[in-house]
Amino acid sequence: xxxxxxxxxxxxxxxxxxxxxxxxxxxxxxxxxxxxxxxxxxxxxxxxxxxxxxxxxxxxxxxxxxxxxxxxxxxxxxxxxxxxxxxxxxxxxxxxxxxxxxxxxxxxxxxxxxxxxxxxxxxxxxxxxxxxxxxxxxxxxxxxxxxxxxxxxxxxxxxxxxxxxxxxxxxxxxxxxxxxxxxxxxxxxxxxxxxxxxxxxxxxxxxxxxxxxxxxxxxxxxxxxxxxxxxxxxxxxxxxxxxxxxxxxxxxxxxxxxxxxxxxxxxxxxxxxxxxxxxxxxxxxxxxxxxxxxxxxxxxxxxxxxxxxxxxxxxxxxxxxxxxxxxxxxxxxxxxxx
Length: 338
Prior knowledge:
With about 350 residues, the protein is mainly β. The chain contains 4 helices and 18 strands. The strands form 4 sheets. Strands 6-7-8-9-18-14-13-12 form an 8-stranded antiparallel β-sheet, covered by helices on one side. It has a 4-stranded antiparallel β-sheet with strand order 1-2-3-4, with no helix packed on it. The model is unreliable at about 1-25 (pLDDT under 50).
């Protein structure tokens, strides 16, 4: 009995302290198409896909109860899901205006409707002509070490003709923290081929497309709230340390907290978070995320050979942001050296 009491107290102290905890261990497996599958305790956590679009992305991603925490479309057609914005693939990064117009946010399918209509066909073709890509070059690390897994890679940003504009060092770390699943998404954008200009744009940054049932517009109980207390549509375009999107997913109330680290570019970031389900940390949009038509544009310049640092964390949790203690979790994250 004494041993049982000791074990119970130790377990409670670990949980209270917010220390890393995992029932078993992580594994990583290369896929035939060049991607990586991450599992925890033999169950799927996330898959990294590098060959299905003009940029790599994480999909699917599963939360702490095993439910999918990213919309399936356009990778799969699921009854009841919304089918807008085919470029909103799982978790991905993109920018609509690199070096005077090169586009990596959208993809070819994004302009299909424009090309079908006479009034918008010409505009659609112009967009397609500027469509670039983020190309996976190589993995620098793929490993699992018990309590975490890592996927690290180098990407090249290419213009429509295949010319490299910049490169990126990307590192994704997967963990279980208490009752949550966590992905750290660390990026260094490198002006490897000369100076880079990232335009002041609305559609730019690191994104996750939440499950359709969780979207506020689904009117099933979905909710957006940021660290400053702004809610739902009022959170769009506003800067904050963190933002949380929570709501029903397959019979459970689950959430996605999205953190912006103090060391990340233009912290606290602006949030391009939409009531229909798009959830983006966008430090590149100032005028692009403002309702003030007279707001000044603030493009981002990266000098040749220099780096721009982006540091973010996704926390997949049960319940809402209060029950999941997201504010406390952010404070712990903010103290980490990133």
